[in-house]
Design brief:
Helix content is about 45%, strand content about 0%. It is an all-alpha fold and about 170 residues long.
Length: about 170
Amino acid sequence: MDDITMDVDLSEGPHAPRVVMPQHPLEQLYDRLIEQLRALAEEAVQAERIRIEGELGSAASIHSRSARSRFGSAPLPVGDEWIQGSPRDWLPLLASFPLPGMPAAPRTRAKAKGAPPSLLSFLTPPGQPGGRRARDWSRGDWLRAVSELADYVPSRDLGFIRQDVESTFATLFT
């Protein structure tokens, strides 16, 4: 029996090898920052739901008018759709709902006005109005955003984010 072989060009089409360009370290850092904020916001919302259920009892709905958070103006989100929102949307949740065992942060005049515009701009994803790629922000912009985030959300220990920013910039510019 003859061995029949065929040459197939795999340089195009669905079987073509894909070249994945490594992501810039600052883009990776931005992705980590967003993921950390998402995790903190999820934790804050879950802790607030548990707190409200404990206060109202299991028979009451956590979405009733009496179940509003006593810690701030952010309403308790219904379901998990809010997670798909932008980091800008999570800031009021982080600022309003303290971690279990931590007191609520005092409501300051700055917090009442909302997050600083520079922080909101920093957290706007690229491709949206006002958003920029992570590598387009200077080191000072990064540090100011982390500092403003820590000031706006004092009930969270965000030191690990500052360390991540510092170590990334140290590796990039040494």
